[in-house]
Amino acid sequence: CGFKLFSRASLPYIIPFMHSESWIFDVEMLMLAESAGIPMAEVSVGWKEVKGSKLNVVWDSLGMAWGLAVLRGAWG
């Protein structure tokens, strides 16, 4: 989980180049920001877990691994 905040000026370097529509989209956003030289900072935020998550650890982990492999191949 994570909250991504971008300045309006950085969006033209990120949004038009995105291809991912699954859970991996935020990784692609960070990769695009890094390749465009956009400075990044990690800031902690409060988080409260809510019961009833639809996350399936096994299947969603496999989906993330596949998405990372596709991104890596696209960037390679």
From TrEMBL:
It is an enzyme of class 2 (transferase). Keywords: Glycosyltransferase, Transferase. It comes from the Eukaryota. Its EC number is 2.4.1.117. The keyword Ligase does not apply. GO terms for molecular function: dolichyl-phosphate beta-glucosyltransferase activity. This is Dolichyl-phosphate beta-glucosyltransferase. It comes from Cryomyces antarcticus. The gene is ALG5_2.
